[in-house]
Amino acid sequence: MINIEITSQNAFMQHLLKKDTFDEYILTSAIIKREVSLTLENSAGEGDTEPLYKDYRAIIYDFIKGSVAPKYMKLVLKSKDNPKNVSGRFINIIYKDGTMSLTTGIAYETFVLDKESEREWDDYINRFIALLF
């Protein structure tokens, strides 16, 4: 697991809300707090098609847009492709108190001592973020 502070928030938000950069990730959850809150939860059951971020990006953008930043935002995105013994590779994007960060996570199907999948995911996300800026 790594934590990356997003220093170029405007550029990152362009990728998140206006470009297709994250479109092929599964939307696990989204919480956005302004004067009112917006909460989106993935309720797909086993065998159901999971919702892609691209299908909800416009809703999230419409809720966030404006001259005042949200008080809080957390998006959890999941990779569609997972290696053996991994049930999910995640990106957690959090905006709070004027600071934005991205944290990686991985969920294993069973307990494993080998954390190579986690290191590979972290390395991939580091390279992915570096390409955005």
Explained architecture:
By secondary structure, the protein is α+β, with helices and mostly antiparallel strands. The protein has 3 helices and 6 strands, in the order βαββαβββα. Strands 1-6-5-4-2-3 form a 6-stranded antiparallel beta sheet. A hairpin with a 7-residue loop joins strand 4 and strand 5 (86-96). The protein is globular and about 45 Å long. The two termini are 21 Å apart.
H/E element sequence:
EHEEHEEEH
Gyration radius from CA atoms, angstroms: 15 Å
Major sheet attributes: 6 strands, antiparallel
What is the structural class?
Answer: alpha+beta
Figure out the total of helices: 3
| pLDDT < 50 runs, ≥5 residues | none
Quick summary:
With 133 residues, this protein is an alpha+beta fold. The protein is built from three helices and six strands; from the N terminus they run βαββαβββα.
